[in-house]
Design brief:
The chain is an alpha/beta fold. Helices cover about 30% and strands about 20% of the residues. The strands form 2 sheets. A 9-stranded mixed beta sheet has the order 2-10-9-8-7-6-5-3-4, sandwiched between helices. The N terminus and C terminus are likely disordered.
């Protein structure tokens, strides 16, 4: 779905001439970005840079992440084919100063029968030629990028890789993930940072989440997707107004305390509707209070600013107040700006900490 970002700088209060008033404390910094562009125009040869640049102009800051998405296979005017490694698009993102966040789907983008892309077929080696070509091209490109492979795998029936589709099971998901990861390791594509990204858990999601986890040796960052659909009549399933903390809290705790302790966490998609409450207040509260205080392990976050044509009002353009709240929050140094055109280390580490004024400081 989507991704949200924001934080209000903690303002220091009071005036003091003591040395303690000027002490600072280290505060984790966060990568941030936005899903931009149009679903109707998914051509990503430019790496979504034009639409991201427009978004950055609106909110007053260049993002440190640019998300792009590719399926394994698709059909167009030139026929049907496997989609090659997008070196041109990722280079455009890097020139912009951002880190590519690639969502990579083991599916036929053109729809139709997805059973040839079953998880069992992937784990059994049916796509090894394609995977080897992709891994080799990634290695030759040579720069770090995030790879979010087959995300939201715990939503039954939603994706070609979901449990219950094409005979897929949680065990088959783990086997497929590990097989794809092993191909990249074998080919020396060590510039890939592997992002395992379920949806936040809910009543009907596939459980336990641990059954879908490929293992710490095959995952670099964990990740969550989650939205506040509010009371929108377009929400599927129907929902109620929920805070960022109520959406992410329980699954975040499971990730950080037991399932993958020590791994940094990304929110790859989040956003809020305007229906049922104040979207601007949701943004300011989520990233001004809840994110930094209650979710310190979240070190990357992406706002979903794309109109899917389904009636949901995720983009900030839904109101001037939402846009203003986002711009104010993202202005904080807590959110790393686009300065990553020379990043070279893999797996990608969380951004460096940023100073935070101590209580009582100026």
């Amino acid at each position: 779905m989507a991704a949200g970002v924001l934080l209000v700088v903690l303002a220091a209060t009071g005036v003091s001439g003591s040395a303690s008033a000027h002490r600072t404390a280290a505060q984790p910094a966060v990568y941030w970005g936005a899903v931009t562009g149009s679903v109707a125009d998914p051509v990503l040869s430019a790496g979504n840079v034009p639409s991201t640049a427009s978004f950055a102009s609106t909110v007053g800051k260049r993002p440190s992440l640019i998300p792009v998405g590719y399926s394994w296979y698709g059909c167009g005017a030139g026929g049907c084919a496997f989609v090659p490694f997008p070196a041109r698009a990722l280079s455009a993102i890097r020139r912009f100063g951002a880190i590519p966040l690639v969502s990579w789907a083991s599916a036929n983008q053109s729809g139709g029968d997805q059973s040839p892309f079953s998880l069992a077929a992937i784990a059994g080696g049916a796509f090894d030629s394609f995977l080897t070509q992709w891994a080799d091209a990634a290695r030759r490109w040579g720069h770090p990028f995030f790879l979010r492979f087959d995300w939201e795998m715990n939503i039954p029936g939603l994706w070609p890789w979901s449990p219950g589709v094409s005979g897929n099971t949680p065990a088959a998901y783990v086997a497929a993930w590990r097989h794809v990861h092993d191909v990249f390791v074998r080919e020396g594509a060590r510039n890939v940072t592997w992002v395992w990204c379920p949806n936040v858990e809910y009543a009907a999601s596939s459980k336990p989440l641990a059954a879908l986890y490929p293992g710490s040796d095959a995952v670099d960052w964990t990740c969550l997707d989650g939205y506040n659909s509010g009371t929108s009549p377009h929400a599927q399933p129907p929902s109620t107004w929920r805070s960022f903390a109520s959406i992410f809290g329980a699954t975040y705790a499971a990730l950080t305390r037991s399932l993958a302790p020590g791994k940094p966490v990304m929110v790859a998609e989040t956003a809020s509707s305007e229906s049922g409450g104040s979207k601007a207040a949701w943004i300011a509260t989520a990233y001004g209070k809840q994110l930094g205080k209650s979710f310190p392990r979240i070190r990357a976050i992406v706002w979903y600013d794309r109109d899917n044509g389904d009636g949901m009002d995720w983009p900030l353009s839904s109101s001037a107040a939402a846009t203003s709240a986002f711009a104010k929050a993202i202005a904080s140094p807590y959110y790393s700006s686009g300065r990553f055109s020379t990043i070279s280390s893999s797996p990608i580490a969380p951004p460096a900490t940023t100073p935070r004024k101590a209580k009582g400081g100026k």
